[in-house]
Amino acid sequence: MRKVEVKLEIKNTPGRVIDAFTEFDLLKQWWGVERSLIEKRNGGTYALVWNISEAGFKYISSGIINSYKPAENLYIDNYLYFNPEKSILGPMSLKIEVKEKGAATELYLCQDGYGDSNDWDWYYEAVKEAWPIVLQELKKFLEQRQ
Fold first, then answer.
1. What is residue 145's predicted lDDT score, i.e. its pLDDT?
2. 20 to 30 Å CA-CA from 43: which of 65, 66, 75, 116?
3. CA 121, CA 127: separation in Å to the nearest integer?
4. Residue 98: C-alpha distances to residues 6, 53, 55, 73, 95 (Å)
């Protein structure tokens, strides 16, 4: 099964890296998230929204938190992607793991569960290209705010 994996080091603490995925103010600053609903607990909701207009929400990602350990991991199951121009895609999983590595944090991100269709192929290619770029933005953001 296809998956997208990215590893990188960020000069900041493991807890701060996980916070960047769970705190709205941080998500807004580094990823451009416009709204979120994140219940930081096992079984909690994880929902992010981008490109809000009078017509509504353009992009939504949501799922259920399977594991949340503030300085260790964030695992999201039943991860769904909504885009008005595509079919609803999911369920997938999104795993974010962090561990201290000297004065830095090693971040590992894995998104998997991609299906087979034209929309899935489009989404997989978009995610494969986007996650490395987005995580470099996260790295730059967090390293400027140590």
1. 82
2. 116
3. 10
4. 12, 35, 37, 6, 10
- Average pLDDT score over residue span 47-71: 93
Contacts of 146 (CB under 8 A, 6+ apart): 11, 12
Q: Structural domain boundaries of the chain? A: 3-143
Please write the tens of the pLDDT for every residue from 89-133: 999 999 999 999 999 999 999 999 999 999 999 999 999 999 999
Residue entry with tokens 């490109």:
51
Please report the pLDDT score of residue 107 as a whole number: 98
Global confidence as pTM: 0.94
**Which fold would CATH assign to domain 3-143?**
Alpha-D-Glucose-1,6-Bisphosphate; Chain A, domain 4 (3.30.530)
